Amino acid sequence: MTYRIANSLDQLRNELNRCAPSRSKSCDGWIGDAAHAARESDHNPWVKDGATGIVTACDFTHDPAGGANMDNFVAQLLERRDPRIKYIIWNEKIWRSYARRDVAAWAPQRYTGQNRHTKHAHVSVSEKKTLYDLTTSWGITRMLKVEGTKSVAPPLQPEQEPSQPARPATALTVEAYRDGMTLGARTLKEGLAGSDVKWLQAKLGVRADGLFGPITDDSVHEWQRAHGLVADGLVGPLTWKALLSGQSRFASSTPSAGTKPRPLAQVHPPAAATPGAVAGKYFTRSGRQFPSRDGYPLFAQGYNSATGKDETWGGIVIASKSGKNVRQIGCAMTAVTMAVSGITGQLYTPADMAQFLLKNHGFGSGGDILDWDRLGRIAKPEVDLKRLTGFKAPEIDRELAAGRPVVVHVDYYTRNGGKSQDKYDGRGDHWVLITSRTANNHYQASDPAGGKFFTLHAMKDGRLEGDDPTKRGTRYRTVGNAVTFSRGLDRARWMADLVKATVSVASLAGQPKPKPKVVAPVARQPAPSTVRPATSKVSLPSFHGADKWGTVRAIREECIRQGVKLPTQIAYVLATVEHETGDTFKPIEEASYMTKKEADAYLRGKKYHPYHGRGYVQLTWKSNYQKYSDILGLDLVRHPELLLQPDVSLFILVHGMKTGAFTSKKLSDYLTASHANLHDAFRRARAIINGTDRASAIADLAMAWMKSNELKRVA
After folding, report:
1. Domain containing residue 191
2. Which end of the chain is more exposed for a tag (fewer CB within 10 A), N or C?
3. pLDDT tens digits, 503-546
4. How many structural domains does the chain have?
5. Contact at 8 Å (CB) between 565 and 714?
6. For strand 93-96 and strand 108-110, is the pairing parallel, antiparallel, or unpaired?
């Protein structure tokens, strides 16, 4: 049989080679030998891509003298926790990305295999094609030597284009940090440091440490290419003008104290924008800013290629018969949600829309949309939708000319006996949102698959076709099915938003440099109201998901909101979530680390099935689901998947541990203002959730949280 290495591992190997071009490869390897073939191993081509076997493991030689220290290499992979990773083995330890019954995800365990992996590190990736062939950057970086400081690792950021020559592996000397630099006053390049570099990094959406290293340089190159500038990595007058005059496709940031931006240039209508440029109203929820183009936000229905993470709403089940979720079949709903948000100027996420339709019986048993017009009723005033056929370029042009977006059905693969082939069959496979047509007759669109902007062009027969190929080698082609809207973006409102944002930044120009001062943390602003499946009887937190540390802050704030203010109690809540979610800090389902088939068999054997564990703390049994249905006024018995919504799960987590709703034992029974033996108090507090199960291990986690900076901020 033919076989190959997974593309993601090839990408990882290339990044390591670029960081350490002279490294030894004596222990590198990917395809297994006869000894591997005789046993189960990811070095064997057991994953099949058609007739080709895929090897999902690779070994990397430990060579500190050559710049490939596996301690640093593995540490970077563990810090990033890339969703492609299945497990890592190095120096007699193994780290798994999934939780097991006796150990949390990513927790190190002693590795007792025959080869202890002291001369090379082993990386295995997922058997899912969308992950094992994903070639986005792993963020592997070399060490930087900074004058006057210790060696520091640069932030994890996108790598340079493969077509560009690799940089030499010599150490970079960075100048001393210069504060109070006026934006645009000097040309920035690799090796400089200062407050203007920090502002630039925040503008590009990378970690703002004020050191212009090679990865910041890569981000500048990428930004320049996206905005039609010469991609030389130098932030000179033209690049400064572009940075200060409009919205980038990265997260924007307000200039820090001590900076003085130049006046902003005139904002042009979106129809004149170049493909790939982002302009328009920013859409923000719980501190997270969603990118937008033409005034419409961009959402991913599941995996987000920009963040490298799965969106929390992807797991919402919308097909009662098959159990399929938004990630699998929610493209049409997500595309419409983007359109309705732009039209109304209000942020509705796919989670809001899915729950709205579930409440109003908008999905069939297979997850199909029963009444397209119902999707527009989430907004006030409502937006009317029409599902139409026979839509080609002239009809799409008519809608766009009237300022209305169009959701179109596209074909890019063939269905055959449950399998898909990489060719067209004329039937729609996916839905995308078209927002405008550019001056050079390209159609700008937003793709729910991965959350990407892309462009299309008109074919001779009137169909539209994507400008770039998909992962299957085909291109999106419209099939004539479309959804139109009764109105479009309020352009006057949108332009006013742009002008307002422009004035707010430009007004800073010419102001004297303020004296340095300590600024108190800004209180979190409440997120825009969301549409719940029903009106909650209690006030839910304004939280709709975040990364680990954003969730930690949300838990801390919810504890204080519900009157749980002792650091010991908050530490134990955090430790419980860390354990119950396998350190993901996301609402999860019981047995989520198993395959669907294994999980179904496992859960059917539970007495509490189908009310198995869900949320930040694994709520089980129908009586508990009914209890919180009564408290919240949400039908959790009929819709147990609501426990996977961050705001619902967060409220239940804190409320249950505070009041003893789970087991009749509560936080105040064990944790008070002072303790003779705090570890023992944490150990006994496990009774709040689950008797004595893993009590000592969770107590260890709570002791660690007591030393964290997060609890030092508790009033």
Report:
1. 142-262
2. C
3. 444 444 444 444 443 433 333 333 333 334 445 678 888 787 77
4. 4
5. yes
6. antiparallel
